[in-house]
């Protein structure tokens, strides 16, 4: 796991370097600028012109120093700066003065003070544009003239780089109503959690970490609860399969999913449990649906409920399924069940009775419990809502959740002592201790009907084998995202179908394992 930190923790690191190690801030800035410049030169070949826009704080100082180092390589520098020299922070002012003095002797450095929005056009023909306006200390909403500057910069069709944090982004929450759209973000000191979620995920592009010259061992003693999932973690979570394994010891999944109106959800959930390694997958559906399932997935055993005319599950059907619920290692419930009142009654009866060992709750089952959460014990459950469903669960608007998604997710999982898989871009897994695990696989090809049903089945299949809730949630999310990435490589993100996604789960597992074969 890659630990992610708050801006305050990184700021304390800067203070430690200055106050305890006696490293002047200007030296830290110089080290950072040199590392940033070297990375830019390494990643971008044949650069002729670089445009920079620098603010009045230390982020602007980084920008002035980077401009100097790039000019040393013969690159033409066009630098716009905001504010007066006497308004700049001390270290920013020093680097501004150095660059200004160099500009008097070097023809490849041009400095221009910002006076109006038309000045920003001066940067439009640059090969690269570097944002060094605000950095990691920003919170709230951008104000003029910076708001209009960022909008203007975003309209330019050129590669864009952000130093430390894109201007407009809150580096703790990942929220920014208007944010510099970077193709590359070069962050300093340590990875900041907001770069990897919400608007940070959308607007940071590739993210690289550069040091400030004093190492990073300081962070070995700093506690965090936010992590970025790595492939090395996931490979260790794959269930170990004994030679003496049989179809029942390999994991038993009961999917209470689908209805007359949504038979495909039942197919995807129960099938995905098989494709992720479960030895037995039983699907509970109305009699009217079973022919569809047998035709498309003959390996799944069908347990029907109701009569020949039933189209959805009802509370009275619980007794029919009770023995299978107790038999299963995991019950997956909700995908395609529908939202009829009788169905909601069944879901709440099922969860109140707690005859299950483990349970994965998705889709319509989440809708059924939204008004009954305080009465439910969800300790052995994994809830898998997307943002809209989570909004309904906690009665907070999606827009408000996006402003601090980590905090909302953490509060919910701790309050209900459960595991929350908050589906989105990216998907974030929260455990009952308030830790968050951010997934980095997957692409927008997952934005299709049925992908959530597949995820429910994949998580259930892994959980039936391992009996480890957190590991199964992380593993299922990562593997499904990897399956989507492999399909994107093969056929683009536009054409990924959920049924193909389900069938590509074995390829994702194989790819992951082969990546670590010696």
List keywords for this structure.
518 residues; alpha/beta; eleven-stranded mixed β-sheet; seven-stranded parallel β-sheet; 16% strand; elongated
How many E strands?
A: 18
Helical content (DSSP H or I, runs of 4+): 40-55%
Strand content: 15-25%
Distance between the termini: 22 Å
Indicate the topology.
Layout: E1 2-4, H1 7-20, H2 25-43, E2 49-54, H3 58-72, E3 76-81, H4 90-103, E4 109-113, E5 128-132, H5 146-154, E6 159-163, E7 184-188, H6 198-203, E8 206-210, E9 226-228, H7 231-237, E10 252-256, H8 263-275, E11 280-286, H9 290-296, E12 301-305, H10 318-327, E13 330-333, H11 341-353, E14 358-361, H12 363-369, E15 381-383, H13 387-394, H14 398-402, H15 405-416, E16 419-422, E17 428-430, E18 436-438, H16 451-466, H17 469-491, H18 498-503, H19 505-514
Parallel strand pairs: 2-3, 2-5, 3-4, 5-6, 6-7, 7-8, 9-18, 10-11, 10-13, 11-12, 13-14, 14-15, 15-16
Antiparallel strand pairs: 1-9, 16-17, 17-18
Q: Could you walk me through the main structural features you see in this protein, from its secondary elements to its overall organization?
A:
The protein is elongated. An eleven-stranded mixed β-sheet has the order 1-9-18-17-16-15-14-13-10-11-12, with helices on both faces. A seven-stranded parallel β-sheet has the order 4-3-2-5-6-7-8. The mean pLDDT is 94. The two termini are 22 Å apart. The chain has helices at 7-20, 25-43, 58-72, 90-103, 146-154, 198-203, 231-237, 263-275, 290-296, 318-327, 341-353, 363-369, 387-394, 398-402, 405-416, 451-466, 469-491, 498-503, 505-514; strands spanning 2-4, 49-54, 76-81, 109-113, 128-132, 159-163, 184-188, 206-210, 226-228, 252-256, 280-286, 301-305, 330-333, 358-361, 381-383, 419-422, 428-430, 436-438. Helix 2 (25-43) packs across helix 3 (58-72) and helix 7 crosses helix 17. The chain has 518 residues and is an alpha/beta fold.
């Amino acid at each position: 796991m890659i630990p992610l930190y708050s801006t305050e923790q990184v700021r304390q690191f800067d203070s430690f370097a200055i106050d305890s190690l006696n490293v002047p801030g200007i030296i830290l800035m110089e080290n950072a600028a040199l590392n940033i410049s070297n990375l830019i030169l390494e990643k971008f070949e044949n650069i002729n012109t670089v445009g920079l826009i620098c603010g009045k704080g230390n982020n602007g100082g980084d920008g002035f120093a980077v401009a100097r180092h790039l000019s040393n390589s013969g690159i033409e520098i066009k630098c716009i700066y905001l504010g007066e020299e006497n308004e700049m922070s001390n270290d920013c002012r020093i680097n501004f003065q150095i660059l200004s003095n160099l500009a008097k002797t070097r023809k490849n450095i041009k400095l221009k003070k910002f006076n109006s929005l038309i000045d920003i056009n001066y940067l439009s023909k640059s090969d690269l544009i570097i944002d060094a306006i605000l950095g990691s200390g920003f919170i709230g909403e951008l104000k003029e003239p910076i708001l209009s500057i960022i909008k203007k910069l975003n309209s330019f069709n050129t590669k864009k780089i952000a130093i430390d944090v894109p201007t407009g982004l809150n580096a703790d929450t990942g929220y920014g109503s208007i944010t510099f759209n970077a193709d590359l973000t070069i962050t300093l000191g340590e990875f900041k959690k907001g770069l990897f979620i919400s608007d940070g995920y959308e607007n940071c592009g590739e993210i690289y970490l550069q040091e400030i010259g004093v190492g990073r061992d300081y962070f070995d003693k700093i506690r965090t609860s936010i992590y970025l999932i790595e492939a090395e973690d996931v490979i260790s979570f794959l269930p170990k399969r004994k030679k003496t394994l049989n179809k029942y010891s390999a994991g038993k999944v009961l999917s209470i999913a689908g209805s007359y109106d949504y038979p495909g959800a039942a197919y995807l959930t129960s099938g995905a449990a098989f494709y992720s390694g479960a030895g037995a997958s039983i699907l509970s559906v109305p009699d009217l649906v079973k022919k569809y399932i047998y035709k498309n997935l003959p390996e799944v055993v069908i347990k029907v409920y109701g009569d020949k005319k039933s189209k959805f599950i009802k509370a009275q059907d619980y007794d029919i399924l009770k023995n299978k619920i107790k038999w299963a290692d995991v019950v997956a419930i909700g995908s395609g069940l529908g939202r009829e009142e009788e169905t909601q009654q069944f879901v709440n009866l099922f969860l109140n009775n707690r005859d299950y060992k483990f349970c994965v709750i998705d889709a319509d089952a989440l809708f059924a419990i939204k008004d009954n959460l305080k009465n439910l014990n969800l300790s052995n459950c994994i809830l898998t809502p997307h943002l809209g469903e989570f909004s309904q669960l906690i009665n907070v608007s999606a827009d408000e959740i996006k402003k601090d998604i980590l905090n909302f997710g953490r509060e919910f999982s701790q309050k209900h002592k459960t595991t929350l898989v908050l589906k989105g871009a990216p998907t974030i897994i929260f455990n009952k201790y308030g830790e968050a695990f951010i997934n980095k696989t997957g692409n927008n090809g997952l934005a299709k009907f049925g992908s959530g049903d597949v995820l429910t089945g994949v998580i259930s299949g892994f959980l039936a084998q391992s009996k480890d809730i957190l590991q199964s949630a992380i593993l299922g999310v990562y593997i499904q995202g990897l399956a989507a990435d492999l399909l994107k490589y093969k056929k683009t993100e536009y054409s990924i179908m959920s049924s193909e996604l389900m069938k590509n789960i074995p390829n994702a597992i194989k790819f992951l394992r082969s990546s670590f074969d010696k």
